[in-house]
Specification:
Length: 117
């Protein structure tokens, strides 16, 4: 996570599991903080906690409702004004960046075998 100066940037190692409910076709992506399997970088503060879930709910033809929920402990002493701004800005920026990735040509015909329409 890119932080404003003079706060150190954060990093985290995660483990993600993708599932789909066969009845509703809702796809869930559960993200948890993984054990520190990669060494810490002294230029970053390792986040202490991250639990998140993406839910992709089919609404109608080619339309999805995207829900993102997360709980994180960024570690270190951060001022409340900074944390409050991250709570608002991070999800919106994440969704904007996700859209930029999804419209790339290489993802237009991507299909995972275990995800059904």
């Amino acid at each position: 996570s890119d932080m404003p100066w003079p706060v150190k940037n954060r990093d985290v190692v995660t483990h993600s599991v993708v599932t789909q409910d066969p009845a509703t076709k809702v796809v869930s992506i559960k993200i948890d903080k993984a054990e520190d399997i990669f060494p810490k970088d002294r230029d970053f503060v390792r986040m202490k906690k991250l639990d998140a879930i993406w839910q992709l709910t089919p609404i109608e033809n080619d339309v999805l409702r995207v829900t993102y929920e997360a709980h994180a402990d960024p570690g270190g002493g951060l001022p409340s004004w900074l944390i409050n701004s991250l709570i608002v800005d991070t999800p919106l920026n994440t969704l904007r960046n996700l859209r930029k990735v999804m419209i790339r040509e290489k993802y237009q015909n991507t299909q995972l075998d275990f995800i059904t329409n």
